[in-house]
Amino acid sequence: MSSRSLLSVETVRKAFGGLVAVNDVDFSVKESELIGLIGPNGSGKTTMMNLISGALKPTSGTIRLDGEVISGMPAHQIARRGVARTFQLVRILPSLSAIENVIAGAVFGHVRAWGDDAYREAEVLLDRVGLGRRGGAPTGSMTYIDQKRLELARALASNPRLLLLDEWLAGLNPSELKIGIELIRDLREDGRTIIMVEHVMDAIRSLCDRCVVMSSGVKIADGSVHEVLSRPEVVTAYLGADDA
Amino acid sequence: MTRLSEKELRIAVLAIVGFAAVATIPLFDDGYYLSLSVNIALYAVLCTAWTLFSGPTHYISLATAAFFGIGTYTVGLGIDVLPFPVLLVIAAIASGLLAGLVGVATLRLSGVYFVIFTLGLAELVRQVVTWLQTNFTNGVGLYVFTDMGEKHIFWMLLALAAVVYVTGWLINRSRLGFAMRIIGNDELVARHVGIDVARAKVILFVVSGAFIGVTGAILAPRFAYVEPPSAFNPVISFQVVIMALLGGTGRLWAPLLGVIPFTILFDQISSRFPNHTSLLIGVAFMAIVYFLPRGVSGLIEDLRKVRGDFGSAAKAKEAVR
After folding, report:
1. Which of A25, A75, B95, B262 has the CA that lies 20 to 30 A from A40?
2. B108 touches chain A (CB under 8 A)
3. Higher confidence at residue B1 or residue A228?
4. How much is the ipTM here?
């Protein structure tokens, strides 16, 4: 069971004109695994997330979710198959109340709840991300971390098989960061399959089972966090070569 | 989801009483006020139908004249052959079909491209109809002779308005309505929560177009003589946008707040300054966009908010029921 791979990315390439943002990348994610997708800025991590979630279509290569080819499908189809995401720059639905923001994730996607069921479920999720009893709050005036929490609750509302967190921890202050890491740890303990793109190395170290490192569109390492982060090519990618 | 809340019941009762009261207008007057009432009912239907689509999506459609004209022409062509109610159905299907085609082809366009396309579409349909008539029939126009008077047209429009409101209300409390609100907020998020954005938009555009087509059909007997410039008059498209924006597009009833004052204003302007009507309408349009960006209903909501509104949690709960 645990050895089955839920997501497999097979020689996936994405070119924007002459720029190859993702260059024949392979990796796979097993059920209930939390992997970190890391790399310097511009290495193609967010593009990879966009390819998996269907925001972009790969130029070549295949992405499978539980054996089914999802690459090339429109985003809403992928969402309905159980891939949920948060966005690098938080995207809240400003004219909807907090609870409606969460319900939005539960109605059209992998879960198709409606009415009182959706409402109750959303209340539970709000509580879980630390926004209990704030369902009626206008979302425009929420603090940054609260908006991030709300976005996470929306993604969770679809009970996703695969959750994509795109720099969900970025921009949080140290105490918020602690709360954020705890939240993700909680999700992991539930057995959620998660890919997180992250620059916060503390989070990667303390949360991830495994990480995939990208640099200039190429996968340069894939393995247990400790081992991967000490590899010379990874250090070079982040810090530059000795003689640079 | 299936039960009506107390508030909804109250609104329903008020609406029925209101409709019944308005329906008695032809009994009191069959001259100026009835004619003004027909205009108000006409634009109320057009603007509300327009808002069904353009309200949540923020796509400004200038295709109203195309759907309206197709409805009018359906009646013009068929009045001697088929009974009037059948023509209304055909008008709905024909304009809904056109809306569907246009929707599939253009709803990927956003913002100003969509606006220009819809404006061009209305013009294209008009030119095609003119061309067909001049080449394949004897005259440019069609005569629509019926024994229907202003009051019959008024009652039909009123009935159609009721259907539009009920449809709008049903959509708003459905998944489709919720999907449209999400799309209006952020299309990218909408796609990633599993909404088929294109499909939702096309459905609403078809519903909206069909209603506008039926309105054109109902109005045909009033024209008596139907020709392309009057049936596909682009002024209709612009006035609908102006009135709907004046009222506001955030609520089903909001366009009405724009339709009533604007129809009366337009009536006054066109009778007193017949040569400067377009100019004054243009000025009025700019003033509305500048001073009331969210329309009269937006203004009312802002005023309410100032008074303090902490019942929004309850409201949210109601919204998803």
Report:
1. A75
2. no
3. A228
4. 0.90
